[in-house]
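User: I'm designing a mutation panel for Glutamate synthase alpha subunit C-terminal domain-containing protein and want to avoid disrupting the core. Could you give me a predicted structure to guide residue selection? Please restate the sequence first so the numbering is unambiguous.

Assistant: Good idea. Sequence first, for numbering, then the predicted structure tokens:
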Amino acid sequence: KRYGEEGLPNGTIHLKLKGHGGQGLAFGLAKGVRLDLEGGSNDYDGKALSGGELSAYFSGKAGERFCVRNSGVKAVVEGVGDHGCEYMTGGRVVVLGSTGRNFAAGMSGGIAYIFDEDDSFQKKCNMGMVGVGPLTETASDAEMQEVKALITKHLERTQSPKAQKVLDNWDASVAKFMRVMPSDYERVLLQGAAVVKETKKSASASAYTSHKAMIT
């Protein structure tokens, strides 16, 4: 009530928790409040977030349906069970290990990056709505640096030997990542980028014409 619709400034309250978070941790968390959990938790963490920030760092593998219906979370994990990223609509997910079957079923947004050491991932991926290709062939340098930054932050928070190994041999490691992206989502992003490029081109041409007319 005191801060109105704008809510608290970012970083006003920062809680660091250790132990088990239970059910529905950070449900409805308001803007300006950040929770860091070091430990375990149950279902519905971060459900109905209302501007708050929930940070979770996973040391080890996750179970089934990791990041199901993810709509914006950035996550790094060292392996997942079946149905990973099912119905995902946004966010970024980095998997530093193997996945179970039916990965990316119903995935319509966001991007996943799989460290595919044994070339087994494509057989486990549901290709119904996504395209899969080597990260080095399908992503920009900026996107590859974003993936590296996510892994670096994961290492800082978890001291993961797996993340350390990947980063220590980054030039070789990056070539083993597979990039999973929904086909329709990629098309929309490309169309949007083309519109922005054309708009800038038209604006530049108009400015040149106006400048030329003034000189004349």
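For picking mutation sites, this is relevant: Residues 1-56 form one domain. The longest strand covers residues 13-20.
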